Prior knowledge:
The complex is a heterodimer.
Chain A (H helix, E strand, L loop, with lengths): L5 E3 L6 H9 L5 E6 L2 H15 L8 E3 L4 H7 L2 H13 L7 E6 L1 H5 L5 H7 L4 E3 L8 H16 L10 E8 L8 H14 L3 E6 L14 E6 L6 H7 L3 E3 L4 H15 L2 H13 L3 H8 L11 E6 H14 L4 E7 L8 H10 L4 E4 L1 H10 L5 E4 L17 H23 L4 H9 L18 H12 L5 H19 L7 H12 L1
Parallel strand pairs in A: 2-3, 2-4, 4-5, 6-7, 6-8, 8-9, 10-11, 10-12, 12-13
Chain B lengths: L7 H4 L15 H10 L7 E3 L2 H14 L6 E3 L3 H5 L3 H13 L6 E6 L1 H6 L9 E2 L2 E7 L2 H4 L2 H16 L10 E5 L5 H13 L3 E5 L4 H5 L6 E4 L5 H9 L11 H15 L4 H21 L5 E5 L5 H10 L3 E6 L9 H9 L4 E3 L4 H11 L3 E4 L1 H9 L4 E3 H5 L6 H17 L1 H20 L1
Parallel strand pairs in B: 1-3, 3-5, 6-7, 6-8, 9-10, 9-12, 10-11, 12-13
Antiparallel strand pairs in B: 4-5
Amino acid sequence: MPAPKLIRDLSDTSSYWAAVWTMCTMPDVHVICDAPIGCFNLVATAVPDYTDAIPHIENITPSIITEQEVGSSGTAASVQRTYENLRDTGLLDGKNLIVVSTAESEMIGSDLTDLVTRLQPGARFFHSESLTEDEWTGRDRVLHWLWQEYGRAQAAGIAPESGLVNIIGPTYGCFNSAADLHEVRRLIEGAGGRINLVFPLQARLADVPQLAKASLNVVMYKEFGHTLAQALGQPWLHAPMGMRGTTEFVQKLGQLLGTGAQAAAFIRREKETTLQAVWDLWKGPQGDWFPTTNLGIVATRTYVDGLQAYLGDELGMPIVFAASRPLRPGELDNEGVRQLLHRQAPAFVFGSINEKIYLSEAGARYTNFVPAAFPGPIVRRAVGTPFMGYRGCVYVLQEIVNRLYEVLFNFLPVDAAYAQARSAGGAPTAPLSTRAGALPWQAEAKKLLDQALEELPFIPRISASREIQMQVEALAHQRELTEVTAELVTAVLAARAS
Amino acid sequence: MADVSIPLAMKQPDAKPCQLHPQSMCPAFGSLRVLTRIEGSHPVMATDTGCLYGLTFVTHFYGARKSILAPQLGTAELMAGEIVEGTRAAIEVAAREPGCQLIPVVSLCVAETAGLPEEMLPKRVGEAEVVLVRVPAYAIHSHPEAKDVALAALLRRLADAQSERQKKRLLLLGEVFPADPLAIDNLLRRMGVEQTITLPGRAIADLRLARSVGALAPLHPFYKETAALFRSWDIPVVGGAPVGVSGTYAWLKAVGALLDLNAKLVDEVVEEERERAQAVLQAQPLHGRILVTGYEGTELAYARLLVEAGAEVPYVSTSIAQDPLVLPDELWLRARGTQEVVYRKSLEEDVAALDKYEPDMVLGTTPFCSVAKERGIPAMYFTNQLASRPFFLSGGLAATLGFMNQTMGRSARYQWIQSFFDETEVADASA
């Protein structure tokens, strides 16, 4: 029997969450989740509070599975009662009802397909396959299901209109989607396209047939949305990252929309305006740091591929590791990422709260953590922080450079007397010894120092070197030694690590 | 029978609204909050991925910066009956964490439905105790109650039965603001108490010492199972909590009597504290109507403090069930004008109270606070804002009243922002 599969700090949630976070973006939907109180609270309030910055998702109600439903009765009666209460309080007026299964309702084998179709005309049961599928597969399946159930038949008479473009993919729980969507829309319009539908985030369920009106589809994420794009039968593209990727995207849009000249002009203008910041940073002193600014990336495949292409291939920053979620074969899982970060953390880690925790465990205070994925509480509602498109190139690079400035600032010396005054409540009588280099170092001691510095990201090394030397020599003075020994260095390094 | 078909709910103002959206954090979270914060504790969660994602998310926000292990429990593993194997494998990995002394196995809805027999799990791996904690959300109902379940499970295993009883040692029970136990300890020592221990806390040693105490003092009213455990060990339980003027007075007296402290010394300290508390009330009295509607299980005690300070609290709601431990506070409140005390509440009940009482301020859950803010009413998320300041004794009274007064003083800002966004809605509608 193969060893059981273990999860360390899950990165991707289940397809039940995918269903809620996809369907509930549309105001003319009401979802009954066939769920215990917890599965309702976490997906509809506790987590979207901190990922999408919304106080709660209003168009979802739980059937409230309790011991009774689990033990004997099943959930049909609770769903029926929930439906009747919703109907009687008017909450279903003008809404399409969708009942969604959860891991627990699937666990007790509750299939409500027949019941739900009897509740009200048009009501549907969505079996979320929550015990099997992850959120990405789930989102992909939900988007396609919405088209099949609410769009395809009604769209029979709708002909695609040249120049109209759908954006497929933005849902709740997609990291940074406000800013990325804003940028992708700008790129499409810049290339000469007109936006038809942003689906599902800015659509109603009643709009689903209108998906057929677009002559081109842009799928925001590599994780999901492609099945729907395929089903719509029009040409489709993935949203781009990086300077090359974005340029190719705009060119391709121009080609497909028949607006080649406009697309070319847009690219030219972007190089003179938006992207000028990248060119200036490259020409300036900042660009010289790129070859020594190493990074690790854990994020969705969309971001991993995009950041790797831009920061790695285009700008030449060394990528220490890149692992996408959901995991592709050969990539590091969280266990692997954790071990790696515990051993040696790069200058930058793009990731979720999981990687942030591993950095905390490792005491990696020289590493900059850049939020780039869920899970993790973070507000990303401003439209000025994209990772995608040309503006994404500028934002990501600007973020890196500013954090390097921060690192430099934190390593500039500050007179130790202030810290002493703070802790002792008065000024020290004499300045501390700052004479690093005053004592001779034994070869073994120097070797230990060099090894310790090798472990650090590049920029902090100079300052850390001075800091460690001062600490070691202070200890030597304290012990009245005339020479720095390996033992002293070991003691100081151990104290710094704790 | 035709006349009885009139919808009675529409006619009777006091009828309960439909309970469509119960308000509680996922109940299991209470246990994770307690279990992840213990130094040397490395939890294993037996559950499906959706549950795991949500609970680790809130745990990493509110609990601890702690990596969490779980067996993969999907259709394949469940069909093959591999829950035990998977859980055991996760326990083995957790035991290798540096400093691991405790592995709580948190068994949630799906695992509980499938069945996870305790006797199939190891009791100990290496240096670590393995403790099974069963917290299916479908059976626990609220997250404060899951804290009780978790703590009782830990104590049953870890509390040392051989430890010598120290008559003047008191165990404080409840997750409170860190400065609170220090203040309480300080005052009690002046009354002759020799030591206090606070649970749930960060030290396993404190769990081991639990049976050495002279009495148990639950500061929160939902530690039902834990209190029963102490009673079964012949350790007496102090009622009430050191909240507000009268609550503190009665509690300190009760501690003095139960621990058999010097009555004269106790009276001196109690009187001093009463004077301090009264001075606080005089210095910063409350005016106005407040709804207290959290899901932490401590709402009645907060309401009591606010009423004592002069506020009108017509409505209190909580996620926990009615229980003898809460009853004294309920009776106290009802005797002083509180009209409704709702247990296992839903969003609909809170919103109905908002319509009915038109309060000046709301302490509530995030969905309810957002409803209040949409009406321009100052509102604070009970969980975040009240847990982050002292609450007990005169010091807690001062901190809490200061916060309430400041918040109510910001009422104009809440109205301004509400009307600012209201105008855009009007503009949208006319466009």
